[in-house]
């Protein structure tokens, strides 16, 4: 049985971490898997028989990670040498860089890129420059760079100077069956009557909550009984609450904080709405589709158009076009035939994101192409 090493900064809350938690049981069906955590933080369920090697105790933020990076590098190299993997799959920049450096000679390494790096690190000062410089050394040396969308692949080639033939697109896994079951469970608090739902970290430059509130205000002009529920937290939450007051819609906007399980909300919402300015993949779109929830999303440079098949499975609006987002929200409110068409197309589309399929795509990129010398 092949030995597979999986490296990630932690398994706390987050889209990348959730994806890995879904893939690990699939990989364990055909490989002996060991999970290497840069910090010992676990927030998603893991198979009890999984081998886990933490490299340090829980850390308090990126600065602590950077300070401990040399120690992580040494411990990871030593641990990988002891495990003797046949292949390595790493996730997220810090783990990607360290895994490529620490992997034993001749062992194929697949790095996973989940963001559009040129947008993610724009304006991040020294941190962005350091990560970019290190990634430009590590990524081109990897066996493959698995990108979670076509848009991420293009950005990775351009920003990290990865040869195009080394990139492969592997979408994030979505456990549609579990989500649909969760969608039918009860909520801890009663939802409003008809409502739109969004869930993400509240960061305006990335997720566009300011544009979303302006779109919702337009919808409310014709539908004053409809609510907007915002799940998540982040540095711009206070600004978002203040903007809701300024726009006169605070009584119809509910902030419910970070929700580990969003499916019960998605199962009851009129639609899931996103006004993102950039994305890598955006897990919440196929999660909504799996729950039978229609989607309105902005056509940012990566993710939504691929997931929604250019508007077949949901409404796409230009970025920062509050009028177009509002139009999609209102159309879904009033057009039952459109809602059902989006639901049916969404159920079909999420089959492409089944965890077993995604796990096989990773293993093919790692072992099949390596055995053929491609």
Description:
This protein has about 375 residues and is an alpha/beta fold. It folds into two domains: about 1-175 and about 355-370, Rossmann fold; about 175-350, Rossmann fold. About 45% of the residues lie in helices and about 15% in strands. A seven-stranded parallel β-sheet has the order 3-2-1-4-5-6-7, sandwiched between helices. Strands 10-9-8-11-12-13 form a six-stranded parallel β-sheet, with helices on both faces. α2 packs parallel to α3 (about 95-100). The longest helix is centred in the first third of the chain and has 22 residues, at about 60-85. The chain is globular, with a radius of gyration of 21 Å. The relative contact order is 0.12.
What labels describe this entry?
Rossmann fold; seven-stranded parallel beta sheet
């Amino acid at each position: 049985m092949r030995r597979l090493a999986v490296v990630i900064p932690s398994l706390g809350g987050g889209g990348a971490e959730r994806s890995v938690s879904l893939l690990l049981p699939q990989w364990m069906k055909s490989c002996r898997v060991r999970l290497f955590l840069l910090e010992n933080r676990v927030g998603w369920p893991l198979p009890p028989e999984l081998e886990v090697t933490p490299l340090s105790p829980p850390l308090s933020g990126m600065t602590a990670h950077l300070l401990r990076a040399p120690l992580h590098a040494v411990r990871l190299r030593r641990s990988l040498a002891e495990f003797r993997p046949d292949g390595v799959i790493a996730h997220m920049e810090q783990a990607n860089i360290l895994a490529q450096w620490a992997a034993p000679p001749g062992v194929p390494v697949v790095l996973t890129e989940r963001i559009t790096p040129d947008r993610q690190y724009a304006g991040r000062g020294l941190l962005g420059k350091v990560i970019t410089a290190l990634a430009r050394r590590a990524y081109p040396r990897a066996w493959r760079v698995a990108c979670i969308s076509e848009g991420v692949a293009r950005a990775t080639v351009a920003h990290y100077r990865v040869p195009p033939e080394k990139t492969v697109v592997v979408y994030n896994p979505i456990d549609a069956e579990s989500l649909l079951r969760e969608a039918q469970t009860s909520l801890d608090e009663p939802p409003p009557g008809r409502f739109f739902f969004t869930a993400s970290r509240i960061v305006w430059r990335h997720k566009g909550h300011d544009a979303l509130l302006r779109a919702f205000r337009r919808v409310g002009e014709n539908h004053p009984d409809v609510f907007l529920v915002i799940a998540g937290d982040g540095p711009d939450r206070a600004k978002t609450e203040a903007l809701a007051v300024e726009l006169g819609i605070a009584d119809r906007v509910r902030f419910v904080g970070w929700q580990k399980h969003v499916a019960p909300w998605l199962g009851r919402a009129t639609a899931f709405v996103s006004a993102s300015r950039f994305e890598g993949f955006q897990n919440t779109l196929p999660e909504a589709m799996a729950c039978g929830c229609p989607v309105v999303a902005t056509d940012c440079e990566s993710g939504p158009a691929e997931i929604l098949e250019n508007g077949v499975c949901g409404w796409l609006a230009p970025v920062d076009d509050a009028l177009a987002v509002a139009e999609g929200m209102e159309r879904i409110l009033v057009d039952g035939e459109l809602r059902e068409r989006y639901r049916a197309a969404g159920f079909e589309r999420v089959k492409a994101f089944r965890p077993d399929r995604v796990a096989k795509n990773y293993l093919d990129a790692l072992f099949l192409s390596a055995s053929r010398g491609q």
